[in-house]
Backbone:
């Protein structure tokens, strides 16, 4: 999901939507940045809570020496990006990138690859290509069946129908408020996104992200199209939740692989990975409500973009503090729940919900400021 080199699903998305790959990569910039913001906030606060410290200046490798030794390794990446963003096909970009990697591997005096290493690389590449080809062939059969039988539109109609009926009940239940917190369309879209997200997570258990994306986008496209969501936002939504399925217990293959490397408990690793993904969980809802976050769609304005991005960033930071339960000091559970609800409301497409979300953050913020002052006063020299 992270530009400039995204997964295979991004290239398939470009072909599916008949859009340049550069537009797909540009649309993914802000959502990917929001994910890393959420990870950074939670890791930073967890480190503060545990009292961890970073390396000293002497322990950090000098960037100049690292670049002098390893700069040739960047050349294939630059070649790949140049060809890709020059308008050539992904196949040509891949060919040029592989050719550049071979040339650098043969001529790089600081880290020259042996012929045996080249043969091993070709062997691994062929095995990976065969696996992807087999998956695409199987998924193609599934897509053909879904398309020819009309099942995709039927499932999309079922999703929007169920979301619409439930949305009417929820909208009526919120009618006691003196203002309209969310419109019926917004509630219906929210429930549709929840249903599609659950389907992505359940069907993505152990399924490669690319295959899952191809299968589910045929179901999500009709459902979201009926609610006015642009096709690019729909595809990005499915892609993000296909990636989330990799770190969602009980089947979270990526988290289990990380646990094996770290010699950690697989279950705890899975739940920690899911917790760190709060940005990926929240951002797809934001860009479906406000597609201006994707940058390349018609109707883009600076005002709408900044409002959407800033409120989304604040919501992600609020969720990060709520999950960790620590800002400057330990936060009680009740205030964590309040702050978490406020963070979720920041993703809704209404200034009313944004103001409610900010209001819910006032008490947790005051508690943190007060606890920080008391902590500073207790540690100050007398």
Residues:
């Amino acid at each position: 999901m992270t530009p400039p080199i995204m997964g295979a699903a991004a290239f398939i998305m470009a072909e599916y939507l008949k859009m340049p790959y550069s537009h797909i990569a540009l649309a993914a910039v802000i959502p990917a940045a929001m994910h890393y913001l959420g990870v950074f906030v939670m890791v930073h606060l967890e480190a503060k809570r545990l009292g961890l410290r970073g390396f000293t200046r002497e322990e950090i490798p000098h960037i100049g020496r690292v670049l002098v030794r390893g700069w040739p390794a960047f050349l294939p990446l630059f070649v790949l990006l140049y060809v890709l963003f020059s308008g050539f096909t992904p196949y040509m970009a891949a060919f040029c990138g592989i050719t550049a990697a071979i040339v650098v591997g043969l001529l790089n005096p600081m880290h020259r690859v042996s012929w045996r290493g080249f043969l091993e690389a070709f062997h691994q590449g062929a095995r990976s290509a065969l696996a992807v080809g087999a998956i695409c062939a199987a998924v193609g059969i599934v897509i053909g069946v879904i398309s020819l039988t009309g099942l995709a539109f039927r499932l999309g109609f079922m999703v929007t129908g169920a979301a619409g009926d439930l949305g009417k009940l929820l909208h009526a239940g919120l009618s006691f408020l003196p203002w309209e917190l969310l419109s019926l369309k917004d509630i219906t879209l929210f429930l549709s996104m929840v249903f599609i997200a659950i389907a992505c997570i359940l069907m993505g258990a152990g399924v490669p992200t690319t295959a899952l994306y191809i299968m589910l986008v045929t179901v999500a496209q009709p459902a979201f199209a009926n609610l006015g969501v642009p096709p690019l936002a729909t595809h990005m939504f499915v892609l993000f939740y296909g990636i989330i399925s990799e770190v969602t217990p009980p089947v979270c293959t990526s988290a289990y692989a990380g646990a094996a490397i770290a010699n950690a408990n697989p279950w705890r690793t899975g739940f920690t990975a899911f917790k760190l993904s709060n940005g990926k969980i929240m951002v797809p809802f934001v860009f479906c409500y406000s597609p201006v976050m994707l940058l390349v769609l018609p109707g883009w304005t600076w005002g709408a973009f900044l409002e959407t991005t800033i409120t989304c960033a604040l919501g992600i930071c609020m969720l990060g503090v709520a999950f960790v339960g620590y800002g400057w000091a330990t936060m009680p559970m009740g205030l964590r729940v309040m702050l978490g609800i406020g963070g979720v409301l920041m993703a809704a497409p209404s200034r009313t919900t944004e103001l409610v979300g900010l209001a819910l953050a006032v008490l947790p913020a005051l508690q943190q400021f007060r606890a920080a002052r008391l902590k500073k006063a207790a540690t100050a020299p007398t």
In short: Residues 8-55+150-377 form one domain. Residues 115-149 form the longest helix (35 residues). The mean pLDDT is 82. The chain has one domain: 8-55+150-377.
